[in-house]
Amino acid sequence: MKYGITETVKTINSKIKINDIIYNIVEKKANAIKYFLEGEEFNQAIVFGAYLCGNFVADALTKDCDEVILVDVHPHLKEIIINEKIKFMDSSKFNLSLRNGELNPDLVVDLTGIGGLSPEIISKLNPSVLIVENPKGTFDKDINNIDNSVDRLNKGVKRGLLNTFRTSKVSKTSGSMTLVIDTVMDSCNDLKELDGVLYALPNLKYYEGILFHEKDIRKFIDEVNTPAITVSCLDEDLENEINNILLKNIDRIYSYVEKIK
Amino acid sequence: MKYGITETVKTINSKIKINDIIYNIVEKKANAIKYFLEGEEFNQAIVFGAYLCGNFVADALTKDCDEVILVDVHPHLKEIIINEKIKFMDSSKFNLSLRNGELNPDLVVDLTGIGGLSPEIISKLNPSVLIVENPKGTFDKDINNIDNSVDRLNKGVKRGLLNTFRTSKVSKTSGSMTLVIDTVMDSCNDLKELDGVLYALPNLKYYEGILFHEKDIRKFIDEVNTPAITVSCLDEDLENEINNILLKNIDRIYSYVEKIK
Amino acid sequence: MKYGITETVKTINSKIKINDIIYNIVEKKANAIKYFLEGEEFNQAIVFGAYLCGNFVADALTKDCDEVILVDVHPHLKEIIINEKIKFMDSSKFNLSLRNGELNPDLVVDLTGIGGLSPEIISKLNPSVLIVENPKGTFDKDINNIDNSVDRLNKGVKRGLLNTFRTSKVSKTSGSMTLVIDTVMDSCNDLKELDGVLYALPNLKYYEGILFHEKDIRKFIDEVNTPAITVSCLDEDLENEINNILLKNIDRIYSYVEKIK
Amino acid sequence: MKYGITETVKTINSKIKINDIIYNIVEKKANAIKYFLEGEEFNQAIVFGAYLCGNFVADALTKDCDEVILVDVHPHLKEIIINEKIKFMDSSKFNLSLRNGELNPDLVVDLTGIGGLSPEIISKLNPSVLIVENPKGTFDKDINNIDNSVDRLNKGVKRGLLNTFRTSKVSKTSGSMTLVIDTVMDSCNDLKELDGVLYALPNLKYYEGILFHEKDIRKFIDEVNTPAITVSCLDEDLENEINNILLKNIDRIYSYVEKIK
Prior knowledge:
homotetramer; alpha/beta; Rossmann fold; seven-stranded mixed beta sheet; about 35% helix; elongated; HcgC (chains A, B, C, D)
């Protein structure tokens, strides 16, 4: 707690950070994938899309896979990887390996979403288990038209669509960044209704700009390590309430893999 | 327009900046004050509270006042003043001048809001025209209890309460920062509903921390010079729509001085 | 609880009825008035506006007033009165009594709101204690312009403005019907977010049409004696939750008399 | 337009009636089905679920089908049928016909939603074209768990899932009644924000009670033939605006059949 402009008004930062919300979401997605895989083990897993969830999913898969390859069109995302068991490939390295016949995955996880992987690539890889992320959230005509996630589910004896939704709330995509923004925004709207709250401020930034235009992984990691919400209020004992409202909104996020025939 | 993670997704910044919204609000407040004063001229005007609106109001008053004094408890806010005709006083300078009988204002404008100026100070100054800002917005029990703006309206042959509201929308105070945050948040909620919009991100920061804890006026001015909203969407021609939605929400803000007997 | 179309879906009516919400609101208004009057006793009290609150306020005043007159332009509203100590007057009866000098109230309560009583009438009555209801809720430019409640506060050694608001929520007027509608609507929106709720239906009707166009007091009393909300859901144990959400929204309503100099 | 309690306040009913919104939704669903069928002709079509959409879909199918059978567990819903070409069967009649081998549909449309038809029945009918309505709207954990619409899509060379959503808005199911309620409620919330609007009242009733508990088809038809919204306002020229806001919300409803492999 700090004082605001005058000592009558207090400023309280949420204990929960942007980082905590991101971690909660990617963990839910990784757990949904693990649950769908039922403890099965794989020789070679390929995960497409490092950001924001792929790195975490790849890490979770290292326990059950001899080899985990993380593919991303952005070479600088290699830096995001901590687990040394994960092998990173950018597009050219991936295409070379594909041509050389070095890729023979029994598990493929496609997290590239809207405008991501082409169905042909997945078809060539021909995995026995295939999971594709459904980028769609609450219905939107244009996003619905552009999405081809079901078309990508064209191979495999076991196929699943990774869905992530916010229960009873509007989120236009299942993207981790969309879910973080909407969770923080809805929490701010809830907080604004509490007695004695002057305003609730979402500490959000265009993180994708830092990652993809500035290409500064370090700065991204710093920037998400910040309290999710700053509240200006009269009551200095509001900290628990702020966290509870954030937690209630985080709990709205559900992720599960839907089996597709 | 920039591309997002993939070329299918675009990123568009609003042309309207945080700065533009702040300017619009303080201009409305200054115009409401000028309208109430009906072109009257004054020898000495004292404005209490430099941030966020006071500096602008003081500037507007220089045309009709021989002397304009801007008083703030935070000495470093002196730097925010550009107009050389405005005389800045911090608390100790103000108290000294008050004791020495140098202050004899015919106009007092109190913009200090919650926890601000005491009614006794205004009583001592005994101006003929007195305007006090009502810090209250949408009803809140606790803010209602702590507010003493009407008690401060204790002198003057002409007394007015400066009200600022957002029509049909919830804002808990009339503070310029509250109104900026709520205007940007509500615009994001509106934008999220457009076809093909993935998310709408409010580019807000805890500006009061920069001004009052870091005491860095320069950084504050830099930070508010940023697009108010960043939109992730499929349609690259959304720029006008983004500005229109922001303008529609800015137009919800009304400021007027209510005459009090 | 009843079954919906199939036995899987349940239908639950709220225990709280429209009537209960109306009663809660008019009781809050009556209590605010009693609190302002501080136990003072009066010879003659005149209450203007029978619907929806006036009848209840008049009833509450009978304990502390020798005579309580309830005035309404709609003669058929006489039927709404139960307490025999209340004397009802329609416009012509009131005007006659006024001309004949039979009216000399020491307390006047004006609940007529927008388009109601003219300031001149109140001025003629010249009570020592005067309370006028402020019809305004959340700011609205047009309602703000048309409201003249402060102009009606033109007499009396003790003057008060009866304010009624919903904390942190939008209600465009303080009218009892507006507050009922908004409370039920916001409760439905909250209920819709619960797990397993298919829809939440507000059991509202245009009650003012029944009262003022059909002029059927009996039908009005029947129609408000109905569960406020009907919920279609999977979980048959939702009844308490429904009432709690309604109560939480009812508790948002605050009424108080603001002393005006 | 009628006057409210005083002549200053007007009461305006929307031109659009509850009936119009119902019709719009069932027409969208019927069109989605027709589009999926691509003009194909059928010998025998069976539609399960008469209320609220089934009767309309059956009617639309009579043009392309030699025989259209409408099945519903509620015998009294037979009265809802106007088109004489539709053959109505209640559960016992359907089961008898099924045992007698009289049913050999080449098209089955299952509109029974949550708790409706069992997958076994559809399996026995073994149609070449099968359409099942997805009852789910915005994600809800409990509704998601109870829904078995994809399991019912167990036969047919051409299989489709009938989806109906409100773009960027929360509706917990695709049920026609859910969509009507949410469309009217959201329109009321939009209307409340207009300048000079005191309140916007949804003229909704628990129509399912009239149909399934009272079993009064005639009363149902009367009750939905009512203006969707009643608005209390200062401006008598608001009629077009009211309809435009209703239309904008009706246009949010999209229905399409998703091809399932």
